[in-house]
Amino acid sequence: MSVIGSGYDGWMVKFSGDGADPRVTRTRRDVVRESATALLEDGWAAMTHAEVAKRSGYSKATIYAHWPTPFDLARDAIEQICEDTTHPPAGGDLRTDLHAALTRLAETLADGRYDQLMAGVITRAGESDDARDLRDRLYENATRGIRGILAEHLAPDDVAPSLSLLVGAVLVRATYEGVPVTSGFLDDIIQRVLGARR
């Protein structure tokens, strides 16, 4: 199971307002859906008007009219990916809930799509404020469940450092070391972080 959903059929089109042309609404929905799928499956190289036109069945001219640049396509695709994110429901026990949320994060990183997506945003974050906003949006989205669990149980000043330690440990293990994030590993880092906090 992954944090990132693979389907976009349930998306409520954010662009549609009162009196919106249903054809425009449908076009935007279809293109953003295909852009999100392309970005997750093939990375930033797929964020071209030609590739998205091929995948969505709309003309390049239509896509240029709504999304003048590849970054515009990527921005709306990332917003869609974030909207499709799910987090395990919290049951109220700090360690159990952290274990479940970190397991979901590890599963997402293990499939190789989300970390590549983040890497692309991080690379571009040095170039523009918009890219930095996307980086922050993706990080907030990926860690929202863990942050919420910590906020329920810890003092406010302990939330951010605990989040960094827990997420950092999983990120290094799953991406840099390429080693499976086991249940025992999660138990160990949770104990170390909570123990250090006390």
UniProtKB/TrEMBL annotation:
Matches recorded under PROSITE patterns: HTH_TETR_2
SUPFAM superfamilies in alphabetical order:
Homeodomain-like, Tetracyclin repressor-like, C-terminal domain
Q: Which GO terms describe its molecular function?
A: DNA-binding transcription factor activity; transcription cis-regulatory region binding
**Residue ranges: DNA binding:** 48-67
Could you name the domain of life of the organism this protein comes from? Bacteria
Q: Where is the HTH tetR-type domain?
A: 25-85
Which Pfam family is an annotated match for this chain, by its short name? Answer: TetR_C_11
Q: Any idea what this protein is called?
A: HTH tetR-type domain-containing protein
